[in-house]
């Protein structure tokens, strides 16, 4: 895991100037070393900050050239199947001089060209320069775990792992799109991560599973998607038992190859099904007496605390447990730095809790962490997916299954299919609902706190579509995994882990799992009134039963409602009474001032609604203002 950057243009900057401008803003991503490389023609300048994970010697320094000197790469990430690829390339006659996966990418490109991307199983963002053709080949992994941002102009092309690095370059201003920002605040999966254009007007990004070739002489470039998921008929025909067996085998292998490291490896453990499954599988790959460390964020004395679920996993897996207690006081004190490292507004205080867990791992000397992110979106982990499940069954004509399962869904998950009262409320015209909110001092919807025309546009542009090649459930899971909700969560995980120079690896974000899961019938995923049915069935005999059969989905969420009764409230009052907020052409400041008063009077649930304008204004102050 590292930080990468580059500038391409006609003698615009020396390598020393590139180092001075960009690399200090990426040091947290790679504290173990730095390097730059410039082409003979002085048009291409590549930079790298290193976090040493594989082959800790100087042989792993980047930018790295292949043995011929023709190709040079700056790379961030991990190719988990690099050992298998290395062996295959050696059989083809290629010779290796390091123990890094970086060299495997270079040799794979030399052997297979752009087709090498189809062979990689990993998380990555890289830029590979061909000194003969003077073209730069860039790519981002299938899920978009690693970022690749770029700024394209008529005389210069720049790229980097983070916004703050690009914004350090002359001519790239932190001008941002306020409406795009509001879309992200209204729905964290919209506006900020799923489009080529980012919130900053001068910065774009490669999307998940995209590649780019830049002609460094003309600065012309083309972008294409090198991988997409298509449902496969032979997988749809599997029996439930065979599907569960294949899923267990693939997940086990996904965990196994993510254990490869020359530095200590541990795991995040929330007590939820996903991270617990990973920790339980890991014990199969380490000696029964071998030490393994897990890291848990706790909120004792609140409904948000999941320690009673984490304890049986810790006991069964015989791991060394470490616990951190994130607090409102800590967030208030660290807010500016937290925002600086995250670069964009985050969806809730959960991301601060994640930030604290990664810091704890750093304090304990564990560099690499496995985590359960990605399972909820791929496997149907949220109860609201039952709405799409029912729709998929209806379209398939599964009337008998619907007759049997609908009452059971309503009993186990009362809110999953939208209660009638809420349905009636949501059928009222938006203008009337907004008027009632302002008139009666009720409601928590962020849209009520926007100017009317802005609110209507945000609501319209944040609507979900449908991917025609999938059924209704798989369409929702596909979108949330590859272009919406998970894409944003991956940004949070990248920035929070890198803030503390930790590498986070996600077994559920193995594309082989997605290719299996999204080909299966909907009842394999959520049938028999089970969220994440495949995972639950595959973990029989592996995961403690009280965890495997817990039906309530509890996200890693601090008690944010009570946090806004303390130090965060004073910060929110300052930000929401600032001149910029009160004179905003987008926000309805008086509505939010009334929200503050309602919160003080005891409507603590408003702590969740208040977060969005609070973090948006804090971001303008602590990130944009600092850039």
UniProtKB/TrEMBL annotation:
<dbReference type="GO" id="GO:0006529">
    <property type="term" value="P:asparagine biosynthetic process"/>
</dbReference>
<dbReference type="InterPro" id="IPR029055">
    <property type="entry name" value="Ntn_hydrolases_N"/>
</dbReference>
<dbReference type="Pfam" id="PF13537">
    <property type="entry name" value="GATase_7"/>
</dbReference>
<feature type="active site" description="For GATase activity">
    <location>
        <position position="2"/>
    </location>
</feature>
<dbReference type="InterPro" id="IPR006426">
    <property type="entry name" value="Asn_synth_AEB"/>
</dbReference>
<protein>
    <recommendedName>
        <fullName>asparagine synthase (glutamine-hydrolyzing)</fullName>
        <ecNumber>6.3.5.4</ecNumber>
    </recommendedName>
</protein>
<keyword id="KW-0061">Asparagine biosynthesis</keyword>
<keyword id="KW-0547">Nucleotide-binding</keyword>
<comment type="pathway">
    <text>Amino-acid biosynthesis; L-asparagine biosynthesis; L-asparagine from L-aspartate (L-Gln route): step 1/1.</text>
</comment>
<comment type="similarity">
    <text>Belongs to the asparagine synthetase family.</text>
</comment>
<keyword id="KW-0067">ATP-binding</keyword>
<feature type="binding site">
    <location>
        <position position="101"/>
    </location>
    <ligand>
        <name>L-glutamine</name>
    </ligand>
</feature>
<dbReference type="InterPro" id="IPR014729">
    <property type="entry name" value="Rossmann-like_a/b/a_fold"/>
</dbReference>
<dbReference type="GO" id="GO:0004066">
    <property type="term" value="F:asparagine synthase (glutamine-hydrolyzing) activity"/>
</dbReference>
<keyword id="KW-0315">Glutamine amidotransferase</keyword>
<dbReference type="InterPro" id="IPR001962">
    <property type="entry name" value="Asn_synthase"/>
</dbReference>
<dbReference type="InterPro" id="IPR017932">
    <property type="entry name" value="GATase_2_dom"/>
</dbReference>
<keyword id="KW-0028">Amino-acid biosynthesis</keyword>
<dbReference type="InterPro" id="IPR033738">
    <property type="entry name" value="AsnB_N"/>
</dbReference>
<dbReference type="InterPro" id="IPR051786">
    <property type="entry name" value="ASN_synthetase/amidase"/>
</dbReference>
<dbReference type="Pfam" id="PF00733">
    <property type="entry name" value="Asn_synthase"/>
</dbReference>
<dbReference type="GO" id="GO:0005829">
    <property type="term" value="C:cytosol"/>
</dbReference>
<feature type="domain" description="Glutamine amidotransferase type-2">
    <location>
        <begin position="2"/>
        <end position="217"/>
    </location>
</feature>
<dbReference type="GO" id="GO:0005524">
    <property type="term" value="F:ATP binding"/>
</dbReference>
């Amino acid at each position: 895991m590292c930080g990468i950057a580059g500038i391409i243009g006609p003698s615009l900057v020396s390598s020393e100037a590139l180092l001075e401008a960009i690399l200090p803003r990426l040091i947290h991503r790679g504290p173990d070393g730095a390097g730059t490389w410039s082409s003979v023609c002085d048009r291409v300048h590549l930079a790298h900050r290193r976090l040493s994970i594989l082959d800790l010697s100087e042989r792993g320094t980047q930018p790295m050239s292949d043995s011929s000197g023709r190709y040079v790469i700056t790379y961030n990430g991990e190719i988990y199947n690099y050992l298998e690829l290395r062996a295959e390339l050696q059989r083809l006659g290629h010779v290796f001089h390091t123990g890094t996966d970086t060299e495997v990418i270079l040799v794979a490109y030399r052997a297979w060209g752009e087709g090498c991307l189809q062979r990689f199983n990993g998380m990555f963002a890289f830029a590979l320069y061909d000194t003969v053709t003077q073209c730069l080949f860039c790519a981002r992994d299938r899920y978009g775990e690693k970022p690749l941002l770029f700024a394209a102009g008529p005389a210069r092309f720049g790229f980097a792992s983070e916004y703050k690095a690009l914004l350090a370059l002359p001519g790239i201003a932190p001008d941002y799109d306020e409406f795009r920002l509001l879309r992200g605040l209204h729905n964290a999966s919209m506006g900020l991560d799923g489009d080529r254009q980012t919130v900053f007007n001068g910065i774009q990004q490669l999307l998940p599973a995209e590649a780019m070739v830049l002609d460094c002489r003309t600065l012309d470039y083309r972008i294409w998607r090198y991988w997409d998921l298509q449902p496969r008929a032979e997988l749809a025909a599997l029996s439930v038992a065979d599907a569960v067996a294949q899923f267990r085998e693939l997940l086990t292998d996904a965990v196994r190859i993510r254990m490869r490291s020359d530095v200590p490896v541990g795991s995040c453990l929330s007590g939820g099904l996903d991270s617990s499954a990973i920790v339980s599988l890991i014990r199969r790959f380490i000696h029964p007496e071998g030490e393994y460390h897990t890291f848990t964020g706790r909120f004792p004395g609140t409904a948000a605390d999941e320690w009673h679920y984490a304890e049986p996993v810790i006991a069964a897996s015989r791991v060394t447990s470490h616990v951190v207690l994130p607090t409102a006081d800590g967030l208030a004190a660290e807010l500016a730095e937290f925002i600086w490292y995250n670069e964009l507004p985050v969806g809730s205080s959960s991301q601060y809790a994640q930030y604290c867990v990664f810091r704890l791992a750093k304090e304990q000397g564990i560099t690499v962490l496995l985590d359960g992110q990605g399972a909820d979106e791929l496997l149907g982990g949220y109860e609201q997916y039952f709405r799409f499940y029912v729709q998929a069954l209806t379209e398939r004509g599964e009337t008998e299954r619907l007759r049997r399962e609908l009452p059971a869904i309503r009993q186990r998950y009362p809110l999953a299919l939208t209660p009638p009262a809420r349905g009636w409320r949501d059928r009222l015209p938006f203008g009337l609902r907004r008027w009632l909110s302002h008139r009666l001092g009720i409601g928590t919807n962020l849209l009520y706190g926007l100017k009317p025309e802005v609110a209507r546009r945000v609501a319209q542009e944040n609507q979900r579509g449908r991917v025609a090649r999938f059924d209704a459930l798989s369409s929702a899971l596909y979108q949330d995994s590859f272009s919406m909700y998970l894409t944003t969560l991956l940004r949070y995980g990248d920035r929070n882990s890198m803030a503390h120079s930790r590498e986070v690896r996600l077994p559920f974000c193995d594309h082989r799992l997605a290719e299996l899961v999204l080909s299966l019938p909907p009842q394999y995923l959520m049938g028999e009134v089970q969220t994440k049915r495949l995972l639950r069935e595959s973990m029989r005999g592996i995961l403690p039963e009280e965890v495997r059969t817990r039906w309530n989905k509890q996200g890693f969420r601090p008690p944010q409602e009570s946090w806004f009764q303390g130090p965060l409230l004073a910060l929110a009052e300052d930000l929401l009474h600032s001149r910029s907020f009160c004179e905003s052409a987008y926000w309805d400041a008086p509505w939010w001032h009334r929200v503050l008063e309602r919160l003080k009077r005891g409507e603590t649930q408003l702590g969740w609604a208040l977060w969005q304008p609070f973090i948006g204004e804090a971001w303008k102050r602590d990130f944009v203002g600092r850039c």
